[in-house]
Amino acid sequence: MALPRHCLLCGLSCGRMPQGPICPACDAAYWNEPRLRCTVCALPLPRLRARHGGAARFCCAACSRTPPPFDATLALADYRPPLERLALGLKFRSRLAVAREFGARLARLADDHPACTPAPDVLAPMPLAHARLVARGFNQAWEIARPLAHALGVATDPTLLRRVAETAPQSRLDREARRRNVAQAFRVTQRVRGLHVGLVDDVMTSGATLEAAARALKAAGARRVTNFVALRTPRD
Predict the structure, then answer these.
(1) Does domain 37-232 have CATH number 3.40.50.1100?
(2) How far apart are the first and last CA of the chain?
(3) Domain boundaries, the chain
(4) Count of CB atoms within 10 A of residue 93's CB?
(5) Is pLDDT above 80 for 23?
(6) Each residue of 44-86: pLDDT tens digit?
(7) Contact 44/37 with Cβ under 8 angstroms?
(8) Contact 75, 230 (CB under 8 A)
(9) Is the overall model pTM greater than 0.85, yes or no?
(10) Measured between alpha carbons, how far is 159 from 187 in angstroms, rounded to an integer?
(11) What range(s) does the Phosphoribosyltransferase domain occupy (predicted)?
């Protein structure tokens, strides 16, 4: 008989957890929140925007005014209590089961999603700085990308993007400083001309890092860039 597992959100043991490392009660309470999101950056939108016709109703004012280099973003939920415990547990406590959970849920979200029709040609995890990768021992974005790619039946390449500049942690910077910090941080190492590339990360905050990576991919000829992020910070 399998040993009981503990929910990573509430900490309670319920014997069987068919939803993975999260118990059914927490799954119902916190996941799959009915949020209307910008199709480009995945920021939550006011419900009033849904009353107007046309695809523009699902695009936030900032993305309508100044479109970012990526084309779409899929996000599972807001980065908020208690869901942020999952991302922090993955990143700082090596809870790799969380990465598999994120990957599986992103794959389900991608099913029949307009941004994934057709599916990306290749998925690329956001690369870590070398020193950070050595200290942590793994790249959480790669751990999410592997099960996601398997579920979608697409290729994934952990070396497609290379971080070529050591940058300060984004959490210490304001929005504009974040953009400057990572503006030239990435280099594309493989041929991507004409491809639809999916970028995978655990958390999207300002979007500056994903913007820099998407800009490098578009400069290398990528046809389309779609972000797959587990959690999205509602406001920067």
Answers:
(1) no
(2) 46
(3) 1-30, 37-232
(4) 11
(5) yes
(6) 988 654 444 444 468 999 999 999 999 999 999 999 999 999 9
(7) yes
(8) yes
(9) yes
(10) 10
(11) 179-230
